[in-house]
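Weekend entry, working from home. Most of the wet-lab plans are on hold until the incubator is repaired, so I used the time to fold the two sequences that have been sitting in the queue since the last round of cloning. Logging both here for the record. First:
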Amino acid sequence: MLLTHTCSRCKKDYEAEGVPSAQDICPDCWIGDNPEFGEFKKIPRLSRDMIVTEKIDGTNGLICITDTGLIFAGSRNRWLWNSTQAEIYNDNFGFARWVKEHKEELMKLGPGFHYGEWMGQGIQRTYGLKEKRFYLFNSARWVKQMSTDEPILEEKQEYCPQCCHVVPILYKGMFDTNAIEETIDDLLVGGSKAIPGFMKPEGIVIYHSAARQYFKKTIEKDESPKGVSDGSQSG
């Protein structure tokens, strides 16, 4: 049987079962005492598409372009420079300087955050290069346009700015641990696909589409903690 209760906090009357008491709290006040509800997130299915790319051994680079037309250069954990600054006071292996010098071309990336690896001369394993290069991570969107044998664009793909590169896709298909191991073996035997002829590639990055999560697997010391397996590498 419903009886009239008076909330001891807001003093409003409400209908509820049981005998009224001086400690009654209405539903609105009771909900206000509860912690914010933490919903258990849906678990993505493992048997979904993945993209495996070569893991480049360099240092993380970030290019951010705002809706107002500003461009920012960043490392893994800090901003290095933005286009309102005349001078560069912080840099990471010359990445900010490179972004500043190629600002007009890089604006073609469009608004948003564009992550990649800054690699080459003087950075980690150097790959035998005499220059530095920026490899974009988002291989599902970006394609490197070459002067000959241009790759055909798929839906939602675009050519990246000419000053940029894109991490090579080594496998694309259903998640398969055998395919992952075979890809590692191919790198071990054939060397880097990003820099042909360089025979000590670092490993691979697996992007799981359903989980929207990146995973990495290195050729050497994959079971070791990060600081042991790849030294000071940022990625």
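Second, folded right after the first finished:
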Amino acid sequence: MSHAASFDVLVIGSGAAGLAAAVSAERSGARVGLTTKTTLQANNSSKAQGGIQAAFGNDDSPAQHAEDVLRSSHGTADPALVEVLTSEARSAIAWLEELGCGFTKENGGYRLARCGGASRKRLLQVGDRTEVNSAALEEHHYFIRHPAH
């Protein structure tokens, strides 16, 4: 039997950008559908072994973070976009935690690591990986799954 569904927004892909778009659209009142190739976890964001960066250290700042990004980009990064990325990184972390992402903590704060191109420790991780709690997202969204070809 065929099942027809109606959405205001259809998001293609369940990576970090797709999930952020789906959650944001739903919070704005839209009926959201999210389609994936196979499972919600079948995306490159779920496989990332790095982490996400934000200036939380006492010796760090969004300005220092931006300087590092611009330097490591060898002039290819758009300074206006880097400004947005680095100035809003802390609020993005808070939003991810609200969605159920449990970043690793130690000594009363985040466990921060230093990664390539960074002059300060600012890499946050979930254990040894970056992760979004997909079970919490599945409660709120209708997902369209396509069978493998």
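Plan for Monday: verify the second prediction. The helical segments are 16-27, 44-47, 62-72, 79-87, 89-98, 134-138.
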